[in-house]
Design brief:
Number of domains: 1
Largest sheet: none
Oligomer: single chain
Number of strands: 0
Length: about 60
């Protein structure tokens, strides 16, 4: 997912999107707001089906 899309989602959730914040930090803050564990890029495998899963697991 591109940063522009992530920033739009973050804005809807009221997450800080100031310049200098990493994609990982913004997504983890969104996950917290969604009531999920902030696990983006923290696991090699994932049982959850969240919005970030395809992007998260593509790093491997």
């Amino acid at each position: 997912m591109k940063m522009q899309e992530i920033r739009a989602i973050a804005k809807k959730w009221g997450v800080n999107i100031k310049v200098g914040r990493s994609k990982q930090d913004i997504i983890r803050d969104i996950q917290i707001r969604e009531g999920l564990s902030p696990c983006y890029h923290a696991k090699d495998e994932c049982e959850n089906d969240c919005l970030w899963k395809p992007d998260c697991l593509s790093r491997n």
